[in-house]
Amino acid sequence: MVFGVVGVDLAGSPRRWSGLCYLSQDMWCELERVKGDDEIIEFISEREVGLVAIDAPLSLPRKGGGQAYRECDRRLVEMGVRLLPLTLPPMRMLTLRGMRLRERLERLGYRVIEVYPGGAQDLLGIPRKSKGLEALRKGLESLGLRGLRSDASGDELDAATCALVGWMYLRNECIEVGDPEEGIIVVPKKFK
User: Fold this and answer.
1) CATH homologous superfamily of domain 4-188?
2) Are strands 49-55 and 18-23 parallel, antiparallel or unpaired?
3) How many CA atoms within 13 Å lie on the side-chain side of 21?
4) Where are the domains of the chain?
5) What is the pLDDT of residues 70-128, one digit of tens each?
């Protein structure tokens, strides 16, 4: 049986859109936007999925008490990747939602990893969505993704990036950054 990867660009609130991408073994993308966690789980459960790659912190800093970064976050900063501190209220909300979603998915038997599409885009040498959706779409296509709609939202293109990182991870083309007891972010080995 052939399994694909689902990338999830998770919003901090179920009132906002989250982007989803199912990436098949032949690098074909199915994109969608949903709001609720049940919709995310339904999208995943309707496909043959070997891995779910989520753009959201899936753990809190071990030390707690206002720590802005986990070890994995600090390592990404050292690699030149920009990210937001977990002490910001919207990031805290996203983290808690991501942790709940991961728990639900793992209870259903799915393997889940944390990814960061902006960081992956930096490391792969393609533009982030802030540089324009067309530029990001073309960058993803240059890496082999197919089926990306010309009207895809930024959330969907970030979800496609998440799925690509998951696809690369299954092919041993990624590294795990951080402390396994605190949290790991999976990033591509290929640097720009």
Assistant:
1) YqgF/RNase H-like domain (3.30.420.140)
2) unpaired
3) 34
4) 4-188
5) 999 999 888 888 888 887 889 989 999 999 999 999 999 999 999 999 999 999 999 99
